[in-house]
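Q: Got a minute? One more chain.
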Amino acid sequence: VKSPKKSKVALTKEGFQAVRELDNGNIYGVMLAEMISNIFKEGMWFKALTPYMLILTNNDPIQVGNMLTLNGITRAFTGVVSGRMAINAYGVEAVWIVTGFIGLLSILINVVCLAKSSVPAAYFLNFAWAIYNGLWNSCL
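A: Always. Here it is, folded:
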């Protein structure tokens, strides 16, 4: 017995309904958003980040590697935790607001990094931007 064929409109409606039901509770959806963001947003940031950190650390590749590791681990952890817990508990709007405040804080830290050439501030900048990017990716 053949099942009746559904129209493209009906299939599209079912697809959107499935997305609404998932409501960011699916870890694979979070990972997909992370991957897409990594390609377009973080890809450009990392191209600028490494030379920027090399200048601040007087060409110390060990410190730059430590900063990039801190950034990557923090971003991944924040993305998964916010995607699995924070958005479900507080809603995407609240997480967007927190993301905005962290982004503003990160801009201020960046000004300190530029003005003082501070290596500790550069570590904190990597940490703050990683949290910002992890939250941003989850909110997508």
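A: The mean pLDDT is 81.
Q: Perfect, thanks.
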